[in-house]
């Protein structure tokens, strides 16, 4: 199975699969006409939309990822985030009010709980279900199912229950689909990264993304870094006004060659961004403890992961 990834304009992103696994943004027409909307108004709206798209940096990326490539990316991220263990696919970190599940530590809140981080596990479950995979019974239902454990203590006590065992097996069996979900989310956020970049930097950010997206190894580095250090678009995730996410790494790249050359430059830029994060931090001693591990991870991109 191969996935062809096509960018045509912000939000119009398609994964065209040779088999049945296909994710597409679909244009839906309304069944009802709004009162008082004339044909002239419709034409004006269409012209306005066309003008806005024309002003946006043109997005045109097309690569092909085989199922083997997608699975390989998923297994690498699984190794990075969970040490490649099935037990590591289900965790709940101390001091947090949510479970962290799957190769991407997707967040799942209990009923009535929320926090500063976006809940991603229900979206993953929906994505996997739409691609035909069988869900554990306790994940079935209408709408988003909340996390059945209300605290870390409840979750730890439930480790040997059928529900947790089913959850682990479900996550171990769907590593490829979890990787597809991460890749789709990475693609969908490109317009957001371009919007956050300075106008003078937008063309370069797009070009650097395209360089990295030209090979499976480059796509792995993109997906892993986003999962590892974020998009770089949140102003709350900055020290002294400087971020450390994917956007900042792409802004630090200026080459034009693709393939291994692009991945090497990405690794160097990521290394510089992470060192700068520690230097700008008000808790340098604390963050310095993690720096060697962070650098080892990003340097590994240029060595094949």
Structure in words:
- With 305 residues, this protein is of the alpha+beta class.
- Among the domains are: 85-177, no CATH class; 198-305.
- The chain is built from twelve helices and nine strands.
- The chain has helices spanning 39-55, 67-82, 121-130, 152-157, 162-173, 175-188, 190-196, 202-212, 216-229, 246-251, 259-280, 284-299, and strands at 2-9, 12-17, 23-24, 62-66, 90-91, 99-101, 106-108, 238-239, 242-243.
- A four-stranded antiparallel sheet has the order 3-2-1-4.
- A hairpin with a 5-residue loop joins β2 and β3 (23-24).
- Residues 1-35 and 49-60 have low confidence and may be disordered.
Number of helices in the DSSP assignment: 12
Please identify the structural class as seen in this structure.
alpha+beta
Mean pLDDT score? 82
Helix and strand sequence: EEEHEHEEEHHHHHHHEEHHH
The biggest beta sheet, please?
4 strands, antiparallel
Shape: globular
Strand content: 5-15%
- Main sheet: strand order: 3-2-1-4
End-to-end Cα distance: 23 Å
Poorly predicted spans: 1-35, 49-60
- The percent of residues in helical segments reads 40-55%
Would you report the number of β strands? 9
Rg, nearest Å: 21 Å
Question: What attributes characterize this protein structure?
Answer:
globular, 305 residues, four-stranded antiparallel β-sheet, three-stranded antiparallel β-sheet, alpha+beta, 9 strands
